[in-house]
Amino acid sequence: MRKLPLDCLRPGMEVARPIYSAEGRVLLNKGVILKPYYIRRLRELGVPAVYVVDELVGEWEVQDVVGETTRLEAVKLVKEVMEASRRNRSAGNGLIASPGVSRVVENILDDLLRQREIMVNLVDIRAIDDYTFGHSVNVCILALITGITLGYRRPSLIQLGMGALFHDIGKTLIPFQILNKPGPLTPEEYQLVCHHCRYGFDILAGQENIAPEVAMVALEHHERYDGTGYPQGLRGEEIHEFAAITGIVDVYDALTADRVYRRAYLPHEAYEMLAGAGNFRHDYRLVRAFLFNIAAYPSGTLVQLNTGEIGVVLSTPRGQSYRPRVRLLYNKDGGILKDKPEVDLSAEPQRWVSRVIPPGEKVGD
After folding, report:
1. How much is the pLDDT for 6?
2. Any domain includes 306
3. What's the rounded Cα separation, in Å, for the pair 300 and 97?
4. Are the C-beta atoms of 7 and 360 separated by less than 8 Å?
5. Average pLDDT of the segment spanning 67-96
6. DSSP string of 66-77?
């Protein structure tokens, strides 16, 4: 199984993981053989990549950190709430305070607690138009993983999850044409987008059943450790910890997602950018807790080792982000390895990943 961008898809390839819309509809199911029409339709829908079967790579079981049903229900709910809020603020407010929202956060948390040892090993694939909804759910999941690592108790985790899930609710008051603008924003447009933090705070703070900590996440998730963030220019411990966590995972998920104005960064690139921002843009203690759970090379990534061998990443042990288990496919001379031996880089310090093989690059003889 490998994740390939649309430009690298070819008719005849087999889909390895289903692709869903924000409503939970299956756009392409596992096992479907790609046809030219399917590839064109995916491009029209703004789906940036697909997991496909690779016979040379072989198959293995890859678990997401939350169940498929849990993720789909969360994305569907976020879309419902945000679209209702955009149409009618009071209708959206009613949904935010409903038991269904807290139940979704509880379900995500329960899934995560059942699978504490699983690393974030998959890249979520979402259509461009569904970016905000999938992003909100991912930020919730990643924030909760970080909170669990920090030892938060359940009530705090629920508040963190709620805040992270609706950290961008204020964007429902920003025009679509600005949020989805493919080119650079004007200074006036940028200032308008910055207002989403205060808008979000006002929306959440006005709910009787929403804790003040939840609203603080919306207000402060763009504040930065060095004081360069917005809207208040807070620094260090002035920033609520829930908001600081959400700000870190928000950056990571945004970097690793395809946007209308740029291609996604590779996970190891985003990992390095965040690691380098510790105690500068972000609190390093929180960055470290987050990155402890992130695989720099997700399952299905084609990599070359320092020994010259090329293989595919199968999994990564928790806390060993740069030391994955790799199935070797080619020897150092480019010849195919018929037995496809597996190496655990966490147990072999003399071997390491030297580079990621870009999709479309010819490998082997």
Report:
1. 87
2. yes
3. 39
4. yes
5. 82
6. S-HHHHHHHHHH
Q: Are residue 44 and residue 72 in the same domain, yes or no? A: no
Do 345 and 282 reside in the same domain of the chain?
Answer: no
Integer Cα distance of 342 and 311 in angstroms: 9
Query: Is 365's pLDDT higher than 70?
Result: no
Distance CA 299, CA 122 (A): 6
pLDDT > 90: percent of the chain: 65
Please check the confidence at residue 151 and state whether its pLDDT lies above 70. yes
Identify the H or E element spanning 168: none
Which residue segment(s) compose the domain that 212 sits in? Answer: 68-291
Predicted pLDDT at 260: 60
Neighbour tally for 81: CB within 10 Å: 26
The tokens for 117 are 């040892």
- Give the side-chain half-sphere CA count within 13 A for 273: 14
Question: What token pair was written down for 39?
Answer: 């590839």
Axis crossing angle, helix 131-149 with helix 99-114, rounded to the nearest 10:
50
Sheet holding 302-305, edge to edge: 342-344, 325-330, 310-315, 302-305, 353-356
Q: How far apart are the first and last CA of the chain?
A: 21
pTM greater than the 0.85 cutoff:
yes
Looking at the structure, tell me whether residues 182 and 321 fall in a common domain. no
Q: Give the type of residue at 102.
A: S
Tens digits of per-residue pLDDT, 333-343? 999 999 999 99
| Strands in 274-309 per DSSP E | 302-305
**Residue 242 tokens, joined:** 């829930």
- Asked if pLDDT for residue 128 goes beyond 80, the answer is no
User: Which residues are paired to 14 by β-bridges?
Assistant: 33
Q: For the chain, how many structural domains are there in total?
A: 3
